[in-house]
Amino acid sequence: MGDLHIMPGSRHRPHMKKPLWIIVLVLFVCVFLICAYIYPPQTSSGCYVFSSRGCKGFTDWLPPLPAREYTDDEIAARVVIRDILKSPPIVSKNSKVAFMFLSPGSLPFERLWDKFFQGHEGKFSVYVHASKTKPVHVSRYFLNRDIRSEQVVWGKISMVDAERRLLANALQDPDNQQFVLLSDSCVPLYNFDYIYNYLMHTNISFVDCFKDPGPHGNGRYSEHMLPEIEVKDFRKGAQWFSMKRQHAILVMADHLYYSKFRAYCQPGLDGKNCIADEHYLPTFFQMVDPGGIANWSLTHVDWSERKWHPKSYMTQDVTYELLKNITSIDVSVHVTSDEKREVQRWPCSWNGIQKPCQAHIMRDFDSVCCSLVTVFFPLLRTHVVVVGFDCM
Ligand SMILES: *[C@@H]1O[C@H](CO)[C@@H](O)[C@H](O)[C@H]1NC(C)=O
Ligand SMILES: *[C@@H]1O[C@H](CO)[C@@H](O)[C@H](O)[C@H]1NC(C)=O
Ligand SMILES: *[C@@H]1O[C@H](CO)[C@@H](O)[C@H](O)[C@H]1NC(C)=O
């Protein structure tokens, strides 16, 4: 700091008859400094007026202007979030993974999941939110595991409500440490131990999150979400997450950001097609704990056809090669929806090691064609005869 400009040290007693021009000069300098504080210099040439070392030198001398004044609700939300994030994880001796199924009714792959769970009693729990019809269960692991449900409309906040309802129910069991959201068309790609260890030995949550400047991303943002949610924090991602307990509690604690999405992220509102379940959690975590999420989901899904819905796997598609291909993907890919169609690729790293990403659960097995499939699930080391299921 040796080169700081120091005001002249010796102070002379002011003369009573101070020449007018000194007062004018002092006033001029004051006005100049006040103006410079209120309207900070934007161009680099402006910077050199104040300091030969560039913009930094001048603004460093002044107290930083607060970004903006937080509302009461925001201050309250921030202290709660900060304390939840600071609290150390509660280590349970019987840590369990909560598998939470979001389904319209019966689960076409219940028998497959039954096989997956067999022999691992005490290390998992199952929750089913069936939004249309009461499911008929064929597996003992699913019996009496239906939670109170409500109607779910695709794209609406009721989807997020169902996710929160599942989380709330699963959080009631203090042994649940990881919370996996699944659809009725998900199937496991690995055996239980692999998935259990994958989830238990990491301290991040797998929430899909990326920045899409295009119409299906930021194009859905509404300025009504201001001041709490700025467009720079608006994110997109698939809804299928796996979350650690601390993050599940964060979601329960959030009312502020959730209510903004409930009010201003709806299909057809203000001519925008905002899909709450694709934006609420990615944006929320981007704001409160960006380093705590992986930014990709464990649930594989194929969007390469660029349609409204991802690719469905038909009977003839489900081959050993396909499963092998999916389990070898170790880079997560997001494509923006603007005309640039920028492809964002991130290696999927698990505790710093690049590993298969989605390797875990696969979505959109077509339930209509399931009655014909006989598949060898390499990582379950078993043939799963998907015949005679109660296909919907
Ligand atoms: C996760 O743990 C690693 C070390 O085990 C640590 O470096 C990292 O900061 C932790 N990440 C979070 C989000 O807590
Ligand atoms: C996820 O993305 C955010 C930026 O949006 C970044 O800060 C964070 O480190 C990323 N997470 C991981 C695990 O790399
Ligand atoms: C598997 O991956 C290979 C190489 O990328 C590709 O040629 C093949 O078509 C894929 N097979 C399936 C069934 O997806």
Automatic annotation (TrEMBL):
<keyword id="KW-0472">Membrane</keyword>
<keyword id="KW-0812">Transmembrane</keyword>
<protein>
    <submittedName>
        <fullName>Uncharacterized protein</fullName>
    </submittedName>
</protein>
<keyword id="KW-0328">Glycosyltransferase</keyword>
<feature type="transmembrane region" description="Helical">
    <location>
        <begin position="20"/>
        <end position="39"/>
    </location>
</feature>
<dbReference type="InterPro" id="IPR003406">
    <property type="entry name" value="Glyco_trans_14"/>
</dbReference>
<keyword id="KW-0325">Glycoprotein</keyword>
<dbReference type="InterPro" id="IPR044174">
    <property type="entry name" value="BC10-like"/>
</dbReference>
<dbReference type="GO" id="GO:0016020">
    <property type="term" value="C:membrane"/>
</dbReference>
<keyword id="KW-1133">Transmembrane helix</keyword>
<dbReference type="GO" id="GO:0016757">
    <property type="term" value="F:glycosyltransferase activity"/>
</dbReference>
<dbReference type="Pfam" id="PF02485">
    <property type="entry name" value="Branch"/>
</dbReference>
<keyword id="KW-0808">Transferase</keyword>
